[in-house]
Amino acid sequence: MNTPADDTFLSGVIEGFYGVPWTLPERRELLSWMKAWGLNTYVYGPKDDVHHRTLWREPYPQDDAEELRSRIESCRNHGVRFWYALGPGLDIRFSSDSDRAALRGRIRQLLDLGCRDFCLLFDDIPDVMDPGDRQRWGSFAAAQCDVVNDVYRWTLTRNPQSRFLFCPTPYCGRMALRELGGPDYLGVVGRELDPAIGVFWTGPEIISREITVEHVRELESVLRRPVVIWDNLQANDYDGHRFFCGPYSGRPPALRGAVSGILLNPNTEFPLNFVPFRTFVDYLRSDGSWNPRAAYRAAMAEWLPHFETVAAPLKLDDLMLLGDCYYLPYEDGDAAVELWAVTQRLISKPRSDWGADLQAFESLSGRLRDTCVRMTELRRRPLFHALNRRIWELREELDLLARFVRHRSDPALDTVPFESDFHRPQTYRGGLVARLQGLLQAHPDGSFTPSPEAAAAGRPGISQNSP
Contact, 328 vs 244, CB < 8 A? Predict the structure, then answer.
């Protein structure tokens, strides 16, 4: 069974998100964790490093290059392989000799800085091919494989130990089914990409709830090699309201033996990633069975000292309550599930049927609101800054709900409409984005339809005033 100590199995972290790249102190802390936990791979490819995609043809300026050299040396000193990722797919001309020379030039610069391992990424690009390239190769897949093979083999003449990874244009099952990149894209990659080059894959979806052994085995038969999982389970760059500090889950331990590596592309905000990283390491070391919730509690206990405040210590159960509200994309933690259920019952049932739900709501929501306020007292200010906007939004919603419940619990106010002096129209839940979000209603099957409010606004005789 693959473990973090097995150097042939890639295990580690991808800095590959959209958003502000991590700082040097954050990367140093990451490498310290990786060394202590036995992770062996760090991929540098933040989408918003302008030289990663937009200016891929230009060499790094001297100051940036020296910073990369320092980063590469730091990885080597921590026993971690540094992989440099380059994304030329936005505007590359596959038939252009100058573009191929630019790719070699970037690789040459990184080799001179001490880098040995490289990723060429063709993800998140327009599904449109230059007519001349299409005439020559016939497909995206064939053109990409030709370029990647060319650069890989050129690199081996300069460093025979270099390893390459390739990210295809359809990098998950849904994209492949929709034939993104063209018909039989993956089949062409399997036949034409040099067999020594690994292939990234995110699972059935971009953010996959589960990745099974059967899924990757079927893919292996097409690509003619086991894949490297680029795992977006706890990535949050697509939703600025959320982060994910729940445990690594939805991947059976047997998956480790069916792939050639698993790398996490986590929360954009580095300080929020301790539990994702820690539980991932526990998953890699697990023997036969895997209990994500138990790993979550253990990792939260390790993370708790990071929440030192200027006042009384934070309790583990309160930190877990907060974490349960920002658990995983498809799953809330246990306490958040309970909070949602009791709140929903209070809102939907008459006061006479509330029973014990009122006390449960007041206890859970009160603790959670207090915990959100306690975050302002954190001594680790980068951690507070990473949390603040999101958890303050949670606190405001809980405050509004608490006021509403108190209003409904008073029989004397039964005929009085509920208002909150602290949550006024347009200043709270306001703005164009909030209004746009109200136009389409999402359904569990993934489909969207016009929301009832949008449909009503479009009927004759009904108008909707702009704010």
Answer: yes
